[in-house]
Amino acid sequence: MASANPFVDDLRSKPEVIIDPPQDENIIDSEPVNDPTQPATKPNLVVSSSVRELLECPVCLNAMYPPIHQCSNGHTLCSGCKPRVHNRCPTCRHELGNIRCLALEKVAASLELPCKHQSYGCVGIFPYYSKLKHELQCSYRPYSCPYAGSECTVVGDIPFLVAHLKDDHKVDMHSGSTFNHRYVKSNPHEVENATWMLTVFSCYGQYFCLHFEAFQLGMAPVYIAFLRFMGDDNEAKNYSYSLEVGGNGRKLIWQGVPRSIRDSHRKVRDSFDGLIIQRNMALFFSGGDRKELKLRVTGRIWKEQ
Ligand SMILES: [Zn+2]
Ligand SMILES: [Zn+2]
Ligand SMILES: [Zn+2]
Ligand SMILES: [Zn+2]
């Protein structure tokens, strides 16, 4: 009766395995033998992480892209850092010259790496040289803080930024798709000191930022109010909003589409994509003695289709 155990045949054909002491098993495992029962991914992952270290520029610590430079001793350097090291290898201080490291460039071309926004949910795996391009466009890439009043450098996903706006910037949070907001400023003539306000609205399971600020449009001091969508542009297009401001029997109405917070606050403002109120008109709406700005802005957000 033939043996049903495939091991027996295997051992017979490779008698040297029998005499190998068991403690050598690890060494045999790590040899690049073609064993179809072993998944090929494990050793490859080990290799790619050490190659990834090789591809890290020792100066700026970014991943290197062609042309990758090297000194005569073989230390590598990215093309962005090369002009900044005054022709001296930052590792051994030897003259750098103009040697390209083609071997490393070719190794890089053979790599496939996960998107760096993996921790935000991207599952994409990309060839080394197209990874950078993807990451710039990746829909999982974190958003910058939409708060416009300071040089805030915080980035994150939307739930994180909403909590950040609330906790760190003390931004007013409102729920609902309609709003009625009052802006009061005692000295409306100080337009240069760009007074601004941010309010966050949550509706339709999304978050919207209402910006209000004073700025100079050419020679004329104006106020602008506009809405930004906390999410990507393709989703922002599913919403519309209207803003109304008035007084003394006059009214200005703006209807627009919220802009994604991927577009900077400044970009939106400078394209005048919002309700623009001339200061004279704003003071007229405010009533009183023109010494105080008192605007009531009402608005509505709705979902298209
Ligand atoms: Zn560098
Ligand atoms: Zn060197
Ligand atoms: Zn990605
Ligand atoms: Zn911030």
From TrEMBL:
Lineage top rank: taxon: Eukaryota
Q: Where is the RING-type domain?
A: 57-93
Q: Where is the SIAH-type domain?
A: 110-170
Q: Where in the cell is it found?
A: Cytoplasmic vesicle, Autophagosome; Endosome, Multivesicular body
EC code(s) of this entry? 2.3.2.27
Q: Which InterPro entries match?
A: 7-in-absentia-prot_TRAF-dom, E3_ubiquitin-ligase_SINA, Sina-like_RING, TRAF-like, Znf_RING, Znf_RING/FYVE/PHD, Znf_SIAH
Q: What is its main location?
A: cytoplasm
Which Gene3D superfamilies has this protein been placed in? Apoptosis, Tumor Necrosis Factor Receptor Associated Protein 2, Chain A (2.60.210.10), Zinc/RING finger domain, C3HC4 (zinc finger) (3.30.40.10)
Instruction: From the UniProt entry, list the residue stretches annotated as the region Disordered.
Output: 1-42
Q: Which GO terms describe its molecular function?
A: ubiquitin protein ligase activity; zinc ion binding
Which GO BP terms sit in this record? protein ubiquitination; regulation of autophagosome assembly; ubiquitin-dependent protein catabolic process
The top EC class, named as a word, is transferase
The pathway that the record names for this protein is:
Protein modification; protein ubiquitination
Keywords, A to Z?
Endosome, Metal-binding, Transferase, Ubl conjugation pathway, Zinc, Zinc-finger
CC annotations in GO = autophagosome; multivesicular body
Transcription as UniProt keyword: no
Q: What is the recorded name of this protein? A: RING-type E3 ubiquitin transferase
- Which organism encodes this protein? Hibiscus syriacus (Rose of Sharon)
